[in-house]
Structures are given as structure tokens and as C-alpha cells.
Specification:
transmembrane helix; receptor; 2 domains; two-stranded antiparallel ribbon; 14 helices; Rhopdopsin 7-helix transmembrane proteins; two-stranded antiparallel sheet; disulfide bond; G protein-coupled receptor activity; mainly alpha
């Protein structure tokens, strides 16, 4: 953020910011980490993300948001609670570099997915050869490469200086260079992606609502496509709205009248929090709009619940497992005598192991019955475990089948 603010550190504004902003950032961190983590789990579950270009772009968006939340939000929250920057020169450069790296990655990904949705809806057959998982992967590599290129200058943009003996992390470039970089960031990181998104979705929405015959207009496939487009458009609009105040503040600073007072300080603070809030909103949008994501979220939680039950069941069986070691030869039949070798049967309950006595057919028959009982017990336990595992697996890999519209929505989001 350019410039500084001449407000005393004992002012009520700073004291209030020192309380409110860390709370907001803590909520952003909690909701964003859990939400984007669930999005990653849903998309990576059973490898279904490989078969959908849209899901690949959504996965990339979740990775960018999660990287921003984990690597940037905790450090930025300390600006309002600590007197200075206590994390060293490397973190000063790296944190601000990652802020703009993930911002570029998010904006470029939204632009790419808007073009992908337009091709999928406007040219569903012709675009099949273009909209492949491999091409989507190449696009993601290009997105991150361009993001690193545009965010690279921020590695030298910030530096630690000492103000009254306190280290602070601030821009150290001269004004003209800072102005040029801030303008380039606005143009390539916000204006161009927003323009591409606006053009692509305006044409997509126009085609969905007007360029279809009456029969196709009411088809389940068309309804499903509208739902997917609605979800992605909502994500794009939220990105535009959340980052707009941040860029307006910078543009007003360089080209307009932006005095440093309590009102502008509050506006800058609000724009700061709003731009960071965008990183935790996307999972909420997916859950509210997409039935596919809601079902997958439930399946993830259900599978985790069943796995915990299986682990607890195994722990309860630790003390009563039976270990059987066949040294040489074995039993000739289930009830007969021993032939051609020694068989060692060891029971391992909590008490000491019984002494083995291989003399006498009566003792051998007694041991044979014990082995049979143990084998039956083990088979029952394995059968019970297999039933639990089968129930968990069926919830994992078998999607719930609903109406035809829901099936079309799942097919669309997977392809």
C-alpha cells in the first residue's frame, strides 16, 4: 500500500484496529483453511478432477487461495498488533511477493475458466479436442509462470527499515517506479482479467437465455449448465468486488486527492480486509449453489466417520488377536493327529503364553479345537471389518443418484 499515515500509535483508531483486524483475519484464516481444504478433498477424491477442465481450474483457484491464507494472512495480521516487523528481511519480501503472486494466479484462473465455460456451452462438440485435461494443465502452468513474472518485482519492492529503532516492512522504491509498478499491477492483475471475464460470461449468458430452441431451453442439460455458469459467475463477481477497493485506493493515491486522515485510514483498512476475505468466499459459494459439491462434502465427512469407527474397532481387538505360526508340516486333517513335523500354536491374550506339550494325542486334539475356535473368531472379525469397509467404500465411490437434473449437473461439472 503506498504512502503512510500520520496517526499516533496511541490513537483510538489504531487501538480499535489492533483488536478488530486480527479477529477478522483469524476468521478468514479459519474459514479459508477449512473451506479450501474441503474443496481440495472433494476434487481429489477418487481422482475425479482428472476428467474435468472446470474442476482443474477450480482446484487451481483453491490452491492459490490456500497458499495465500497460510503464507500471508498470519503475517499481515501482526501488522496491527505488533509494533514492528519481527520476521526478518526474507519474510518481508516473500510475504508481499506471495500476496501478488496468488492475486495474479486467481485473476488469470478466473479468466481461463470463463473462456472454458463459454467454449463448453457455446461449442460443446467442437471444443472437445481443445478442452482436455492436458490442455488445462498446460494452461495452469502458463498461469503460474505469468503470475511469477508479474509478481517478481515485488521481491525488491519491499524492504525492512528502522523507524525510531523499530523494524518495519515498507516499500523502498522511488515514487516513479512505484507508480509504474502499481499501474501495471492494476492493468494486468485486475483490469484485463475482469474484461475477459465480463466478455466471456456476457456472451455465455446471452447464448444460454436466448440462442436456444424452446425444447432445448427447458431441457435438464440446459438447466444444469445454467447452474454451473451461475456458480462460476458468482465467484468472478466476488473477486471483482473484493479487489476493486484495493485498486481504487492505489489509483486515488497516485492520480487523485487522497489525504491521510481517519476516514481514509478506515477506508484503506476496509479495502485491505475485503481483498483478503475473497480467499475464503469461494468454498461458501460452491456449497450454496452446487448440489454436486454439497453431496461430495457429505460423502467426505461420512467416509471420515466410518474410518474412525474402523480404527476404534481395531484398537479394541489388539489384546485378543491370535497368532499362528506353522514351523514345519501341518495338520493332516482338522481332527486327526499330527503328521510330519511340528506345529506351534501360540495364543497371545493378556496372560502369559501357555507351555506347549506335544506328547499325547489327547493334548493334540485339544489344541486342534482351540485353533479352530481361534480361526472362527478371526474370520468373524475380518468379516465384520470387511462389512464396515464396504459401507465406507460405497459411500466414497458411489454418488447418490437423484433427479435427472442432478445427474446432468454432475456430468457437466466432471466434463
Amino acid at each position: 500500500m503506498p504512502g503512510g499515515l500520520n496517526i499516533s500509535s496511541d490513537s483510538p483508531e489504531l487501538r480499535a484496529a489492533g483488536i478488530i483486524v486480527p479477529i477478522i483475519f483469524s476468521l478468514i484464516f479459519l474459514v479459508g483453511t477449512v473451506g479450501n481444504g474441503l474443496v481440495l478433498a472433494v476434487l481429489l477424491w477418487n481422482g475425479q478432477v482428472k476428467y474435468s477442465t472446470t474442476n482443474l481450474f477450480i482446484l487451481n483457484l483453491a490452491v492459490a487461495d490456500l497458499c495465500f491464507i497460510i503464507c500471508c494472512v498470519p503475517f499481515q495480521a501482526t501488522i496491527y498488533t505488533l509494533d514492528g516487523w519481527l520476521f526478518g528481511a526474507f519474510a518481508c519480501k516473500a510475504v508481499h511477493f506471495l500476496i501478488y503472486l496468488t492475486m495474479y494466479a486467481s485473476s488469470f484462473t478466473l479468466a481461463a475458466v470463463s473462456v472454458d465455460r463459454y467454449l463448453a456451452i457455446r461449442y460443446p462438440l467442437k471444443s472437445r479436442d481443445l478442452r482436455t485435461s492436458r490442455n488445462a494443465g498446460v494452461a495452469i502452468v502458463v498461469i503460474w509462470s505469468l503470475s511469477m513474472l508479474f509478481a517478481g518485482p515485488y521481491l525488491s519492492y519491499y524492504q525492512i527499515i528502522h523507524y525510531h529503532g523499530v523494524p518495519i516492512c515498507v516499500p523502498i522504491w522511488e515514487d516513479q517506479r512505484r507508480k509504474v509498478l502499481d499501474i501495471l499491477t492494476f492493468v494486468f492483475g485486475y483490469l484485463l482479467p475482469v474484461t475477459v471475464v465480463s466478455l466471456a460470461y456476457s456472451r455465455t449468458i446471452k447464448f444460454l437465455w436466448t440462442s436456444v430452441d424452446p425444447i432445448e431451453r427447458i431441457s435438464e442439460s440446459r438447466k444444469a449448465k445454467r447452474k454451473v455458469t451461475k456458480m462460476i459467475v458468482t465467484v468472478a463477481i466476488l473477486f471483482c468486488l473484493c479487489w476493486l477497493p484495493h485498486h481504487l485506493v492505489i489509483l486515488c493515491f497516485w492520480f487523485g486527492h487522497f489525504p491521510f486522515n481517519r476516514a481514509t485510514y478506515a477506508f484503506r483498512l476496509a479495502s485491505h480486509c475485503l481483498s483478503y476475505t475473497n480467499s475464503c468466499l469461494n468454498p461458501v459459494v460452491y456449497a450454496l449453489i452446487s448440489k454436486h459439491f454439497r453431496k461430495r462434502f457429505k460423502q467426505v465427512f461420512t467416509c471420515l466417520f466410518f474410518q474412525n469407527k474402523i480404527r476404534k474397532k481395531k484398537k479394541r481387538r489388539v489384546g485378543r488377536k491370535v497368532h499362528m505360526v506353522n514351523v514345519e508340516g501341518g495338520f493332516a486333517n482338522r481332527t486327526g493327529d499330527f503328521y510330519g513335523g511340528n506345529t506351534e500354536v501360540t495364543q497371545a491374550p493378556e496372560e502369559n503364553t501357555r507351555k506347549r506339550d506335544h506328547e499325547g494325542a489327547g493334548r493334540a486334539r485339544a489344541w486342534t479345537r482351540q485353533v479352530q475356535d481361534a480361526m472362527v473368531s478371526v474370520q468373524k472379525e475380518l468379516l465384520e471389518e470387511e462389512i464396515l469397509a464396504t459401507a465406507s467404500h460405497s459411500l466414497d465411490v458411489t454418488p447418490l443418484r437423484g433427479t435427472a437434473g442432478q445427474d446432468q449437473e454432475e456430468a457437466l461439472e466432471k466434463g
